[in-house]
Every structure is written in structure tokens, then in C-alpha cells.
Amino acid sequence: MYRIIGYNEPTDKAGFIVLDPRVNRHISSGKLTLKESNIDDLTITVNQASPLWDNVRPYHTHVNVYDDNELIFRGRAIKPKKSMEESGQFIREYVFEDIEAYLMDSTQRFYEGVGQTPKEFLQTLIDVHNSQVPDYKKFQVRNVNVTNNKDDQYRQIDYPKTSDAINDKLVKSLGGYIVTTYNPNGINYIDYLTDIGVDHKDDTPIQLAKNMKSASMQIDPTKVITRLIPLGKTLDPEKVEVSGDSDGSFGDGAKEPVNGDWTPVMQDAAKLTGENLSDA
User: Fold this and answer.
1) 14 confidence band (pLDDT: 50, 70, 90)
2) CA angle 92-47-11, nearest 5°?
3) What local confidence, expressed as pLDDT, does residue 255 receive?
4) Cβ–Cβ < 8 Å for 129, 138
5) CA pair distance 207, 147, nearest whole angstrom
């Protein structure tokens, strides 16, 4: 069962119920998107009965999403939208982004590092980030198991956002995943891992009609080859060499009119092309 708790400010300890079927508190619709290599987001739509109705302030209002008692999302509001449905009912749509987005709120300084491990370099970036943001946006580096491609790894940054520096100099270069975790009792956690999730091959095998709800396969006929025509190798064109004098003329025949008569010139030209001209 999913539950959503809202907070007017990120530092509030007491929240309000946005979604909890046990107390008959509902939302019109909701979509939580958990991403491996990007920032998670939550989109919810509410009506006038919701405590979120016209009570959401971008970058201030936060929500927690629970699956039973497990916290699966903590994020801040970024995009409120007001609209009216065909039925005439007014609704509000709110988008929340995961706390990993806090890393977009700080700017790094020019830095060059040689031979640092991924954990050391990440710690350098997080130290700069923490010096620029309030406590609730800070992170502490926890688990890092990604390693360098070489011992003398060189990294240079100018003035990017912290999130861009982590993505460009670590994730894109070495692979792995950035995982942030909300800590209600202190500084949030950030991990840099080669893999995320848990392998359940043994304890939870896939079983049809039990834990595998559905499956489908689609064939795109536009990608099917119905006729294949093999072609031979393309031959290079034959080269024909024509020799001539160094001045660009051909042969030793007449090249100028004789006493104003062009006949000798034309006869020599005809011989070069394989034609015979009579003297007439």
C-alpha cells in the first residue's frame, strides 16, 4: 500500500497526509518514475479536497512516498499546473523531483586532481557542494565501490553544477550509479555503486500467473526483410592512358594550316580518331 506525506518546508518534522486509503485520503492520479541514471520524479493530480490544493510552493513543499513502511521517494515540488477537465472539474498537477536534485543547487570551482580514487574525487565535489547549501541539502559520502581505469587518473573541472561534474567526470567515464538517500535524523547519504538493487534469482523465481503479471511481444513488419538480393563486388573502372607530346599535342602531323589550307591538319586529326578523309 502506498502512502504520501507532505511537508510545507523541507525541515518540517510534522507533515500532513496526502494519500492514505486507511483514512480515506486519496489523490486523483499519481505516477512515480524511478530512474537508474537520472533524477527520480513524482507527478500527482489532486482535486479541491486535497490538502495540497493551492498549497504547494516550488522548492519548499516536500513529499515522502512510502511503500508500506519503506520510504521509496523523497522530493521537492518544482512544477505546479492548474487546469480544468472536460467535466468542468478544476484540478491541480504537481511535479516533485528527488532530493538528488539538490546537487544542481551548487557550483564547483576550478579544480585539477591526479591519482584520486572515485571516492576521493566524489568527496572533493561534495565538500564544495556542502559549503554552499543549507544543512537539509547536504550529503555525506557513504558507499563507493567503483574504481578507476588507471592509477594516475586525471580530472579537471571548471565551474559546472555539482550534478554535472559528478555525471561527466565519474558516471560517464567509469560507469556506475549515483544513489541518494534521505536521512531524517541528519545529513543525507550519497553512494556511488557499480550496481543497484538486489538479485532475487533464488528466493523469488519468476512464475507464470503468480508473480509475472503479463508479457507481450510485438513485431514491426516495417523492419522485416522480405527479399534479399546479393550483389557482387563493385569493380574499379578501367584506366585508359593516352600519351602525347609534352606540349599537350598528339603525334607529328600538321598542327598549323599550310598556306592557309587546313586540310593537312584535319587529315592528321582524322587518323588519330581512326577515320579516313579523302583529298577531295
Assistant:
1) very high
2) 65
3) 65
4) yes
5) 37
Buried b (16+ CB within 10 A) or exposed e, 7-26: bbebeeeeeeebbeeeeebe
- Give the cell for residue 276: 579516313
User: How do residues 202-222 score in pLDDT, each as one tens digit?
Assistant: 666 777 767 776 777 777 777
Distance CA 68, CA 2 (A): 6
C-alpha 250/C-alpha 273 separation (Å) is 11
pTM of the prediction?
0.70
Distances (CA, A) of 184 to 9, 100, 135, 152, 258: 13, 15, 12, 38, 110
Query: DSSP per residue over 223-259, as a string?
Result: G---------PPPPPPP------TTS--SSS--S-BT
- Reduce the DSSP state of residue 217 to 3 states and report it: coil
Instruction: Dump pLDDT digits (tens) for 17-37.
Output: 999 999 999 999 999 999 888
b vs e for 110-134, b when ≥16 Cβ sit within 10 Å of the residue's Cβ?
ebeeeebebbebbebbbebbbeeee
What grid cell was written down for 154?
586525471
